[in-house]
Amino acid sequence: MDVRRTAVVKLAVSDEQRDALHRTADQYLYCANRTADYCWSDTSFTECKTNKRQVRDALYSALREETDLQAQLVQAAIKRAVEAVKGCVERWKKGQRVSCPTFTAETMDYDTRSATFYRNKVSLATVEGRVEPSFVLPADSPTPYEQYVLSEDYEFRESTLRYDPVDDEFYLHISTRRTDGDAEVPADTGHPDQTVLGIDLGVNSLAVSSTGTFWQGDDYDHWCREFEKRRREMQQRGTQAAHNAVLRLGKREEAWRKQYIHTVANELISEAVEHNCDVIAFEDLTDIRERLPHAKWHHVWAFRRLFEYVSYKAPEKGVTVEQVEPNHTSQRCSRTDCGFTHPDNRRGEHFECQKCGYEVNADYNGAKNIGLRYARKRIHRLRSSPKSGDRDAEVNLRVNGGTLNGKSHQPIAGD
Ligand SMILES: [Zn+2]
């Protein structure tokens, strides 16, 4: 199973480093916007350029000449712009209103060639050479950073530097993937008219996808508990200064939690894009408090935020977001030839079908059911459509090739 971790780390930047990062971001945005202009055509989506290699060949040398950016940053800016244009073209094809993407947020993508990680600092390529801001790490050990970025069990994937204009700080979002036991992605069957990624939001894991990726959120839980502990300590002092400190702490915590959920949202969208999914299906969250009485408030908050962010950002990548009725998705057997539904099927994190014996991680079972429910609903709608072409359309669910307990199961098509 594929386990990803994200560490969001605040950078302690000096005034010179700050200037260097802002100037780098300006030039990065210049590259991204110039690339988007080059790729875009208002006439027709067939005129838009979306071949990354061709665009890079056409623009790379010129952008290197025009800017002081390091090679990899120029390439990253081109890549980001081409992907955005591609997302717009997808929406255009579906008849939605689109216009040439523009980039204004100071956000830069770094990889192992443009960023080097040390225990307490990172070295980042900028237009003024390398800068090495140190991390603002919480006092406790191990921090999420130490656990996932420096750990040998996790492989560094990429990081995104974001400037937050509200609190005037730079944050590094570092993405890692566990190196052992990565499951193979099943081959694309090539015919589906729509492919769905199902997402289960739960108590055991923050989010689980039908492709078998887990966002466990235990680092999220850990830091929420730490903030809570600090808050209680301050409140006990009861002074005005302590009261003000509690308010400041609350602001910091909220900013931190938003950053965290933002990163998970981006990863969920990447998961959909990497698996060629057109749709991300969530369960309806309206009655989530009633359905998950044991969920902590910060989880319920996280679910709502996560859904909001994904809904807001997925369309940029040509992915739509849908919700399905949540009834019994956790108690139902996700095997398409079974579907037996019973409360006894689920025991905590473990799912075992009382009828066919299918055993699997309970959240993963839920993610598959959510995806399947969307697929069935859509097929039903298409079958009753007046257009004959729509009636043959296929809706598939993207799943993982294996299960947590190692037993294989039948790949699921949209029924
Ligand atoms: Zn079953």
From TrEMBL:
Signal peptide: none annotated. Residues 190-288 form the Probable transposase IS891/IS1136/IS1341 domain. One of its GO terms (biological process) is DNA recombination. Pfam families: Cas12f1-like_TNB, OrfB_IS605. It comes from the Archaea. Residues 382-415 are annotated as: Disordered. GO terms for molecular function: DNA binding. Residues 303-370 form the Cas12f1-like TNB domain. Keywords: DNA recombination, DNA-binding, Transposition. In the N-terminal section; belongs to the transposase 2 family. PANTHER family: TRANSPOSASE, TRANSPOSASE, PROBABLY IS605-TNPB FAMILY. This is Transposase, IS605 OrfB family, central region. It comes from Halobaculum gomorrense.
